[in-house]
Amino acid sequence: MEAPLYRGGLEDVARLYTLLRDERGLVVYGYRLDGGSIGFGVVRGASELPLRVEAEAGPGRYRLRSGVSFTTSHQSPKNYLHPPRQVVARVREDLSVEEPGAGEGGVALFAVKPCDLSAVKVLDELFRAGANPLYAARRGRVKFVVVEECLRPGATCFCSTTGSGPTAREGFDVAYAKLGGGTVLFKPGSPAGQGVLEEMGLEEAPESDVAEYRRLAEEASRRACLGVAVEEVQRALRRLMGDRGFWERVSERCLACSSCNMVCPTCFCTELVDEYDGRVNTRVAQWVGCLSYTYGMVAGGHFRRWLYTRYRHFVLHKFLFYPVQTGRLGCVGCGRCVTWCPAGVDLRETLLRAVGEGGG
Amino acid sequence: MRSPFAELRRGLVVGEVYEAPNVKTLAVRLVDEVPPPRPGQFNMVYVHGLGEVPLSVSGVREGGRVVEHTVRAAGAVTRALVYREWRGGLIGLRGPYGRGWPLEEAEGHDLLVVAGGMGFAPLRPVLKWVAERRERYGRVNVLVGARTPRDLLFKYELESYRGLPGTRLLLSVDRPEGAWGGHVGLVTDLIRLADVDPGGSYAFVCGPEPMMVNAVKALRERGFREDRVFLSLERRMRCGTGFCGTCQLGHYFTCRDGPVFRLTEVSDYLAVEGV
Ligand SMILES: Cc1cc2nc3c(=O)[nH]c(=O)nc-3n(C[C@H](O)[C@H](O)[C@H](O)COP(=O)(O)OP(=O)(O)OC[C@H]3O[C@@H](n4cnc5c(N)ncnc54)[C@H](O)[C@@H]3O)c2cc1C
Ligand code: SF4
Ligand code: FES
Question: How many CB atoms are located within 10 Å of the residue B272 CB?
């Protein structure tokens, strides 16, 4: 199982990007510097790659500064695969339908995070049965995946608890990790990835680098850890499902803004908006968060009127319902919902309190 | 790569019947081919320029070439369906979607049908189905409730169900008017009067959720088996096919896994508000 690791530098990450774009002719989607922040989208040049920044993150706090390695942004591969807003149909007066395409050409997902990779697998499973052909079409365009592992997990990351990071084992073509001091270790995850690394002429990493990589990976794994097992969390949540008091307490500060849903790499819910110009009706599917009041609202009623029921759905869906729907945990431990919650509601705290009050 | 939203079929409205001042049954002839719906399934019904709503199929004619929908004016789309003149006009349909009533499984058993208000719409095809295959079922009891006698759906054909062999029809209203000969009170009160064998009977229930919760209580009290009680549930549906996610009830997608559920599948969730 031991694939060889290759050694390079930051300039080789940029070379890998250029190779995929120019030699392989792929449209490269990845994290890119965008003003003072990092977004996810088409990377137009190597200078847009966020190679020398890191994020200072905490509950309700996120600032970029120069550094070795950034962890997450408020966006994710979901922004490409299941965009925030997409036209799904244009209906004419005679009810004939024109359907826009999902774009053409091969795509590389570049330098996505291990947790992102897990999130994509969750979405793959969720839409597996053809429920979302637009997703399937965009997913089908992905021909190459590069993962940037996290040897320096962020302060809100808990991916080792959710089993989705901070390193990656499968589902990519090339993964790389920054050791610091400008050294980057590359590992192939597929024959195609192996081919690319050989083409780049990288040398095998010396034993000392490999040992350093393993040491840092283990340390990172310890840091990105919640201190409780997912099974304990799930048992507690099952017990607390009907405990209104508990859910009211943990959602006490929530503002129902649904920022958590927007930044979550596995949240996929959409609402349909009809934009009618008097002749053609353009039907737009756009993200809608289960924390928002209108999510479950219907004419003359409401399926989740109380805020605690909406926060509870977010948590239970990730930990209890996705596993039934997809065979995978819906939470990938990326910490985005914690970082981008303006009220500092901390999912990790909710989970720990659940184990505290409903465990045993 | 067609998304479900592009699967819109044109339907020509060929008939309109007012069931009540705010409720109308539309008969729609499909211009484009679709599979015939099974009792309990629904369509996403599209009104140009306004949007789409989930509506149960309340009737099927000509082997599925004509479907009926019974609509109550609630918001923008349903008001347009009820109050506009539609005969000769075009509406859009997608579907049929969802899992319907387990009519084959119930063969050889007694059947109790409990309908509250608009909940009669998805149960009417059950009555037509059974009427065409009467010998396959045991005793059939139909309990129908409405707010007032005027709100009762399908008044013009109720007597024909009473006329079926081995079939009882009991009606109930919250507020009687005129010469009302039926019961007064909750439709679920009628469950204790049902003349079926509780241990061997199937029960199909549809109505407002509090009514269904009451029905479940009454059915349990009478000794109905939980795995033979079926409910048709409603959630906010924006796609009908598992695309939008907003119809979730616990781990179910109500549009795809339901809307008809076996009680044993959902009883834990029904006990938890807003899950
Ligand atoms: C499986 C199923 C079957 C149904 N069958 C019938 C039927 O046979 N007859 C009937 O009159 N009504 C039925 N309903 C309810 C009907 O869908 C709503 O009354 C209708 O969507 C209201 O939409 P509107 O645009 O008129 O109201 P608005 O309030 O303007 O609706 C806004 C949006 O909310 C959604 N919505 C509103 N109310 C509901 C609701 N109760 N359930 C789900 N979504 C809702 C719709 O998507 C609608 O586009 C059914 C609902 C479901 C889920
Ligand atoms: S938990 Fe935070 S981000 Fe989510 S809805 Fe509440 S306030 Fe907004
Ligand atoms: S209605 Fe969209 S997923 Fe069920």
Answer: 15
Q: How far A41 CA lies from chain B's nearest CA (Å)?
A: 22
CB atoms within 10 A of CB A49: 22
Cα distance between residue B83 and residue B80, in whole Å: 5
Which residues of A, range 316-345, sit inside 8 Å of B by Cβ?
316-317, 320-321, 324-325
Q: What is the mean pLDDT of residues B77-100?
A: 96
Cis-peptide into B122, omega within 30 deg: no
Q: Which amino acid is at B274?
A: G
Instruction: Give the pLDDT confidence score for residue B1 in this predicted structure.
Output: 62
β-pairing verdict for B183-184 and B167-173: parallel
How close, in Å, is residue A26 to chain B by CA atoms?
21
- The rounded distance, in Å, linking the Cα atoms of B18 and B152 is 11
Helix (H/G/I), strand (E/B), else coil: A176: strand
3-state SS class at A182 = coil
Taking CB atoms and an 8 Å limit, are A269 and B2 in contact across chains?
Answer: no
Burial track B98-116 (b if 16+ CB lie within 10 A, e otherwise): bbbbbbeebeebbbbbbbb
CB of A237 within 8 Å of a chain B CB? The answer is: no
Mutate which: A85, A86, A91, vs B, most B CBs within 10 A: A91
**What ipTM was estimated for this complex?**
0.92
CA of A76 to the centre of ligand 3 (A): 23
| Residue-averaged pLDDT of chain B | 95
Q: Please tell me which of the candidates B48, B52, B236 has its beta carbon nearest to residue A297.
A: B236
How high is the pLDDT of residue A2?
63
The predicted-structure confidence for A91-125, as pLDDT tens digits, reads as follows 999 999 998 887 889 999 999 999 999 999 999 99
Task: Tell me chain B's radius of gyration from C-alpha atoms.
Answer: 18
pLDDT at residue A1, as a whole number: 43
Whole-prediction pTM value? 0.93
b/e burial code for range B186-211 (CB count within 10 A of at least 16 → b): bbbbbbeebebebeebbbbbbbebeb
Chain B nearest-CA distance from A63, in A, is 33
